[in-house]
Amino acid sequence: MTLVKTTLNRRSFLRAALLAGGGMVLSFSWMAGCKPSGRKALEMPEEWFELNSYIKIGENGVISLSSPNPEFGQNVKTSMPMILAEELDVDWDNVVVEQADFLPDRFKNQFTGGSQAIRSNWTPLRTVGATARQMLILAAAKHWNVPATEITTEPGILLHKASGKQASYGEMASAASQIPIPEEVELKKVSDFKIIGTSKKNVDVKNIVNGKPLFSLDYKTEGMLTAMIVHPPAFGMQLKSIDDSAAITMPGIQSIFTIDTLTGDIDQNFFDATSFTKMAVVVGNSTWEVMQAKKALKIAWEEEPERVFRRSASWMQGSEIIKATFPPGLESTDDHLAKMAEFTKKPGQILRRDGDPEGAFKKASKIIERTYTAPFLAHNTMEPVNCFAHVTAEKAELYGPLQAPEYINATLSQRLGLPKDKIHIKLARMGGGFGLRAYGHHLIEAAVISQQVKAPVKLVYTREDEMTAGLYRPAYSATYRAALDENNQLIAFHVKGGGIPEMPVAPHRFPAGAIDNYLAEGWSITSNITTGIFRAPRSNFMACAEQSFLDELAAEMGKDPIDFRLELLERAKTAPVGENNDYQADRYAGVLRLARDKSNWNETKQGIHRGVSAYFCHNSYVAEVVDLVMKNGTPKVEKVVAAIDCGIVVNKDAAVNMAEGAIVDGIGNALFGEMPFKDGAPQKNNFPSYRMIRANEAPKEIDVHFVGSETDPTGMGEPPFAPVFAAVANALYKATGTRFYNQPFINGLTTG
Amino acid sequence: MKSKTGQKEIRHSYKLTAALSVLAILMTLMVTISARSESAAFGSKDKEVFADQRKRDSVKSVEAFSKVYSVLISPRCVNCHPAGDVPLQGDDSHLHAMLPQRGKEGKGMLTMKCANCHQSENTRGPHTPPGNPNWHLPPADMKMVFEGKSASELAKQLMDPAQNGHKDMKALIAHADDALVLWGWEPGDGRTLPPLSHKEFKEAWITWLKNGAYAPEK
Amino acid sequence: MATTKLKINGKEHAVDVDPSTPLLWVLRDHLNLVGTKYGCGVASCGACVVHLEGEAVRSCVTKVSRAAGKEVVTIEGLSENGDHPLQQAWEQVDVPQCGYCQSGQIMSAAVLLREIPNPTDEEIDLAMTGNICRCGTYLRIRKAIHLAAEIQNEIK
After folding, report:
1. pLDDT tens sequence across B1-46
2. How far apart are CA A278 and CA A231, in angstroms?
3. In C, residues 74-103, which contact B (CB 8 Å cutoff)?
4. CA distance B134 to chain A (A)
5. Could you list the residue range(s) of the whole structural domain that residue B78 is in?
6. Is B97 in Cβ contact with C42 (below 8 Å)?
7. Quick one: fold of C85-155?
């Protein structure tokens, strides 16, 4: 039992004035509240009583829970209400779930990304649920005139055992809604959880399989126009002039103009990142008509000089504003690779030094050095960029796929010249995010277009627009060196990594802390190709490089790759080197042991090539063992065993689904993913050229195991993604005798 | 490794018996012909076309076939005459990404019948499906594989009615103007054309056929 | 512009659009049947699959003129009560993550199950390789198709 103060989270307890007739505040009339599937529709109550921002209870006992964070497939719309329902102590079958709008006055942490939605909302949501339960108890105590401490709850029911009195939550909801918010409430013991840790079906699954309009691309209002943009064909280019004489006469076309989205006087926050600020816009009656007119536009482009702008130094709200630039020029992948190779040879910025790495390398009997690279990657969310906007002189209403609404509203306010509280952002279910939808440039674009045409507008990107619009996973390179003494013992370790444009090295991460002499260095190269967060940013490369290198090192030392990692972790646990190590060695070792056991690691099978990898990121630990077969020279991952320590698992089957997806995604990107450039132009613009993993390439089996844990939940969306790249590389080595240093691995197979 | 090699099954469907009979007839009729080439043309059906044996010219025929071959193995032709049961795509002739299967009639199967994506005409724009009213692969019982065939193998295959779709000389000549063959020269946005114009191809094709349809040695 | 008569999910519609407009955009923009999704526009991802005379066509490249007078079924009309064996199975297996590609997946799977009532894993892969799922739910799709086959057998 934990006591928590409700004062930490005051805004969660705001109660909106009750609406006459008790109607639910729904975002859009067609967006019915979602019912957990697998049972009959609930009878809706006559009246709702609001206990706080998140919880409403009907007089008939039906519970409405608001899911505060945007949903893009990680199932927060189910798991967050599960946390509320647990502490509120209600029957899940009696719950309806609403997607909350972006309402910073009412909800906390409305950000889905960085695998933090559950982690950052865990205690706040529990507190909110427990507080509402306590208010129901206090209402019953007052009504029955008994001490509150004698009242217990069963799901949806208040009980006073001594007197035999009982009442449903519905009966007490009205009185509870008038109770002052308690200062302190008790949280449940983990062992008393009835909902958390079980598997609840996605609350939207019925709507999804019936094709209901769930996405903003599906949204339509009376008088709505469709808009499309044309952005420069290459990074380093800008719009010079447009000739719309042919396009403007085409059927269904209303207007053609250019927009400037982030004008020079705007201080861009971290998630304002955008590739192009001046674009051509075509507005018309229907998507197809606008698409056709867009093709008929004749646009002249020119090289862009250095672009200078002001932006936040980091993702932290209120962080320092710095001057940022995009260098001029038209960049190509070949040049990038040459430049990165150059930087790997130069000294980098020292990030961490333990012991005397330089000295140890000098006296080493053997030095192993390997360099790894990874290309830019496009996120390729299945739902392309789109956003509905209706901007008038008084207010702006926006509805679109967005992971990080709290970052964009200030920019919208500045750009549109409207106060923040006149900008209403509704959160759409997203057809994938993967980091890309943290960036809200499409909201600015849609809003600016709507303001210009004075009408409700839906901005739609084509697949080609989306794939060539930037914000890619950066390109990276890392060089690892290990020094072995005359007894073949590891005496020093050196990592030097960099990227375009960001430095990916996490200097305090394993194997830092396990080796006496350790050096981490970093570098970066500026570029005008825009990049952004991509599922497990930086880790999605560093895990691959580091875990491939450790595999090669283990082989060089004649050790089993799991035993070798466990030895290092044992050292990091018993006599850690340095003080800033960011991981817990025993939890790390725990997932490796679990993966070893569950995969029968020591068993060998004819034709099956196995690779292992383990990584810690987003506060969680994951180890994965891949079984790979070669069919006529083509690699196929048949089976993956994953062992995950992410603390308490809220929704078990949904977490398994997420891990399966992360693994499939990782295999696909490791083998096929790349966005090459020539003269600033992305060389792939749609799925026929950008190869995505398909059904026949997905493993037959993915076996997901969680370490039983009572630790508070940590990340789940990203941690299972990062390690699989190296597990595939290590299995490929077993299959082919070749080490794969450069992503995507398919290129190594092509020339081999 | 190109991704397609993983799925490729080179089917040596060229039938030995047919080859032997070609050879046998050749040896009796064509003793004067240069030993460097052998005729793939034979059979009583073709008497009409070859009434005048003097027109047969192995050198000219083989020369013409080298031109024909350059077209047949170009992506526009070879992509739908794959060695396996999955068509190829693109100028690099990679395996068709969504793995549509030939099916019995060569029109695809299950969720991926050719006409599900390939319309009666090319869809406009880059990377869009090309089209023709009769878009298909050779059927399962007559695969007419071009992929991976040498010029010699392909010449013999083309002249073997058991492997060429039961075409006689007349039908072969007519095939140069088949709508799906003609599509190769109007393949839609972003696809390279065969190395010869259709006119040049047709000329070479007929020259090859009318001069004895000799197969190159290699 | 011309009037095209369409029969979609058993209902007659007349739409006044350019006959070369893809069926996808007629469904989404003109008839408000938005369960059919836009993913690539070039018949490469399968998000837009509908049934045209029972075949799993890609509506993003199918001109509306081709559908004139023919039977079109979209995800909204796959079953009357949302209880097609595939829809039941998708729910039971809890397949979706983001959910965007799933109507196309289900419409493809429906043709597979009609032609092969009890498909093997290999047959499922052959039939479903045309549908991209960026979230990587392929294993669950396989499982759900097997389950739908069982449900379908029970109904028969």
Report:
1. 334 433 333 333 333 344 444 444 444 343 333 334 455 544 444 4
2. 8
3. none
4. 23
5. 15-92+141-215
6. no
7. DNA polymerase; domain 1 (1.10.150)
